[in-house]
Amino acid sequence: MKNTDNGLLLFKTNYSESSLILTFYTQSSGLSKYIYKGGKKKKTPFLVFGHYEIVSYKRPESDLGMINSLEIATPYLSSASHPAKMLISFFVSDILRQTLKEEQADKAMFFFLLTAAKELNDTNRIKEFPLEFAAKLIIHLGFTPQTALNATAFNLKTGCFSLEMLETEYVRNGPVAKYLNILFSTLVAPESDIQKQALGDILLYMRIHLPSFDNTRSLSIIREVLYS
Where does 7-103 have alpha helices with state H? Predict the structure, then answer.
């Protein structure tokens, strides 16, 4: 039986000389993998974090769907032609690859990701987008830090902001703590010369609280390109 769904393309891998395995986060089924026979020969571009309409079928005994047709549902022309936005798309994909594991519908997560893809297409705030996306994703995943008024310290292990400044490996003090407190309180990343460090600390926070999370490589690339 054929099924039509909407999905955001997270990544693709080779399946054969002409076919691909495509992984989407879909509206109806959450994280879903499909075989796309002859996909390498199709004219439809494969845009990471692109929004697609997927027509497919799936055998009851198989974990993989089979794509009948694939069409771009919303064109992200800016993201597809903008080198920095393409880099951010791969960065986002790397984070999602390690954090989204459930093969079941989560419409709140789907519409969050769809909104984020549209925002990436439209934004001129290139440096701020990765910070805001990571903060919003943390909230959707359910381990939001506890912010505090006028906080000057952030304990990455406990997830608490406070006024008590400590000198330990997992506590951030001063400007970085204040920056992260504003970010998680407002979900708006201020323009600042400490964005590079702040992004690294947000992802360290994710590594502490999420099993097997490690995007050290993509973080290194995006920090070098966007914040150098």
Answer: 77-81, 83-99
